[in-house]
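// run 5 | inverse folding | seed 20
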């Protein structure tokens, strides 16, 4: 299928997979279930899920396994957004064009929704699909997910983001923060695919990690370029001029594409996704 059809197909697919894992209003008709669905099924670009499916095509991984990986990562992403939006974090009122979870359901419910979405991600990734996934590999995948979102990953990145003194921060430190806060989840997409594959070599896995690292950082810089600089929030335009930021995006984008050269034509979907990410941050 062409790239546009690929995007439409897998966005719809992961939406359906997520809906199947989330509590149903008919089974649990309370505000908690409603709030979980409000967040997790909110329309988004689903970039992380698309990376999972595109990377999975390189190794002909069963789509049912990719469904588990994509859904788990999207649930983690949803949880992180709910917590990031809270008043004691980034204090945002809107997300994806509608009021944030805590604005609709209250702070306490939002905290619990984030907790529940994170828990559900592990439940999804640990789900058994008969002999489709090697149990040892699955254990490594679960461990890698835990690492990526904890004290050596997203949580540490968010803490550093909130606690840094802008006046003493270097651009290298800013890169480190965003590699943890945003980049870890992009890297997780390809790392879990590599772990799920029976044919992916260590060299191929490293190429994919470089791709995800570079395009994740380019994505963040481009996102900062699109946004106005907000007081009390880290932004690359506090460290780089606009022309310098654009050059940095181009360099990272080029490095991301170069990392895919070993895969040839089969990696074309990943190349198209990279292009979409640096042109249309979301």
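// decoded
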């Amino acid at each position: 299928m062409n790239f546009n059809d690929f995007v439409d197909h897998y966005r719809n697919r992961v939406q359906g997979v997520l809906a199947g894992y989330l509590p149903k209003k008919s089974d649990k008709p309370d505000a908690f279930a409603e709030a979980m669905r409000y967040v997790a099924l909110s329309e988004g670009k689903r970039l992380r899920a698309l990376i999972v499916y595109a990377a999975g095509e390189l190794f002909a991984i069963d789509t049912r396994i990719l469904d588990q990986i994509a859904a788990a990562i999207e649930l983690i992403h949803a949880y992180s957004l709910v917590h990031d939006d809270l008043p004691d974090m980034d204090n945002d009122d809107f997300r994806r064009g509608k009021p944030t979870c805590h604005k609709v359901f209250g702070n306490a419910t939002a905290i619990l929704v984030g907790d529940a979405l994170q828990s559900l991600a592990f439940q999804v990734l640990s789900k058994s699909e008969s002999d489709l996934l090697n149990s040892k590999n699955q254990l490594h995948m679960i461990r890698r997910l835990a690492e990526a979102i904890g004290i050596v990953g997203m949580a540490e990145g968010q803490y550093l983001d909130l606690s840094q003194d802008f006046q003493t921060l270097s651009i290298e430190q800013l890169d480190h923060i965003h590699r943890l806060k945003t980049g870890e989840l992009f890297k997780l997409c390809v790392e879990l695919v590599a772990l799920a594959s029976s044919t992916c070599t260590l060299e191929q896995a490293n190429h994919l990690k470089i791709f995800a690292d570079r395009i994740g950082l380019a994505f963040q810089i481009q996102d900062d370029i699109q946004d106005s600089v907000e007081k009390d929030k880290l932004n690359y335009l506090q460290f780089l001029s606009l022309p310098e930021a654009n050059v940095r995006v181009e360099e990272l984008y080029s490095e991301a594409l170069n990392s895919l050269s070993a895969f040839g034509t089969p990696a074309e979907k990943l190349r198209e996704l990279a292009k979409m990410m640096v042109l249309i941050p979301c």
